[in-house]
């Protein structure tokens, strides 16, 4: 089960057919092909806009962008020079090693450490590692954040895996989010966007423009539609974001025509409040995506 090294990207190839493609740019997984159970037909499980810019000049519209150290527009004093969703998804990571290649799974590690480019917008010590693991019907992505031992202060950050799951948006239902507190970013006023709501639906759809930040979520989600279902399990990510722009997607320059009908973003993250690491300490946020049907 080899790992193919191509210019600027890695391809993980499973002997039974599944594959994943990871750009060094942003450590962005841009493709994951896996069969449904009982079938050998490989299906693309992630959405990647046909208008996505892949030359390293802009965050990728699709796949699994890595969001660090801030989610959304920066608010923390350490983050005020950053762009939306931070610098991890727009930095070039380095291949560190093949972690596992045993015929059952293949796993690679990419690293991101401070660079002169990052130092222009962020001056805190950090070390990131990202481990991508491909198995027969599963893809795992683990983000490791370390505040180096020599650092003289705590590291405060947010993190999220901005996963674009390929699915017919008009048919999708996400469970279990009922009774969770959430913040609705589609509200017109900042005050309304900061006012907690409670989810009353047993099955959440994205038939309309949806941008919901669920706090203290169960870290185990089912994303289902007519013919398919995907399980998303998280660890270390206490919140989850559900996003689909609907017709608002027409305003997104690198969104293909009608692209918003082809995905739902289910994004495990720690985005309400900040994680804090003392010098020498680490944190791991993990997402395991499994094809169920
Ligand atoms: O995760 C949802 C979200 O924060 C939305 O508000 C929308 O901005 C989306 O991320 C995409 O952000 P981007 O910076 O990639 O255009």
UniProtKB/TrEMBL annotation:
This is Glucose-6-phosphate 1-epimerase. Keywords: Isomerase. Catalyzes the interconversion between the alpha and beta anomers from at least three hexose 6-phosphate sugars (Glc6P, Gal6P, and Man6P). It comes from Coprinopsis marcescibilis (Agaric fungus). Its EC number is 5.1.3.15. One of its GO terms (cellular component) is cytoplasm. It is an enzyme of class 5 (isomerase). The active site is at residues 162, 267. Belongs to the glucose-6-phosphate 1-epimerase family. InterPro entries: Aldose_1/G6P_1-epimerase, G6P_1-epimerase, Gal_mutarotase_sf_dom, GH-type_carb-bd. Substrate binds at residues 61, 84, 89. It comes from the Eukaryota. One of its GO terms (molecular function) is carbohydrate binding. One of its GO terms (biological process) is carbohydrate metabolic process. It catalyses: alpha-D-glucose 6-phosphate = beta-D-glucose 6-phosphate.
């Amino acid at each position: 089960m080899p790992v193919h090294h191509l210019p600027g990207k890695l391809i993980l190839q499973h002997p039974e057919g599944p594959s994943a493609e990871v750009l060094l740019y942003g450590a962005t997984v841009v493709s994951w092909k896996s069969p449904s159970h009982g079938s050998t037909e490989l299906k693309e499980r992630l959405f990647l806009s046909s208008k996505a810019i892949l030359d390293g000049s802009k965050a990728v519209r699709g796949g699994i962008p890595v969001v660090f150290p801030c989610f959304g527009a920066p608010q923390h004093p350490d983050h005020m020079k950053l762009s939306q969703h931070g610098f991890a998804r727009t930095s070039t990571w380095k291949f560190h090693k093949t972690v596992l290649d045993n015929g059952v799974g293949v796993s690679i590690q990419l690293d991101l450490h401070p660079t002169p480019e990052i130092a222009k917008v962020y001056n805190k010590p950090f070390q990131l590692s990202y481990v991508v693991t491909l198995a027969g019907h599963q893809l795992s992505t683990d983000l490791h954040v370390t505040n180096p031992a020599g650092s003289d202060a705590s590291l405060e950050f947010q993190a999220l895996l901005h996963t674009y799951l390929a699915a017919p948006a008009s048919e999708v239902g996400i469970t279990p989010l009922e009774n969770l507190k959430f913040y609705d970013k589609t509200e017109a006023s900042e005050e309304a966007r900061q006012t907690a709501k409670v989810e009353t639906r047993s099955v959440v759809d994205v038939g309309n423009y949806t941008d919901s930040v669920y706090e203290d979520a169960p870290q185990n989600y089912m994303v289902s539609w007519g013919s398919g279902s995907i399980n998303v399990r998280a660890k270390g990510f206490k919140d989850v974001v559900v996003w689909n722009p609907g017709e608002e997607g027409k305003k997104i320059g690198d969104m293909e025509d009608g692209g918003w009908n082809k995905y739902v973003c289910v994004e495990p993250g720690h985005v309400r409040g900040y994680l804090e690491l003392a010098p020498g300490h680490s944190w791991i946020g993990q997402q395991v995506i499994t094809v169920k049907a």
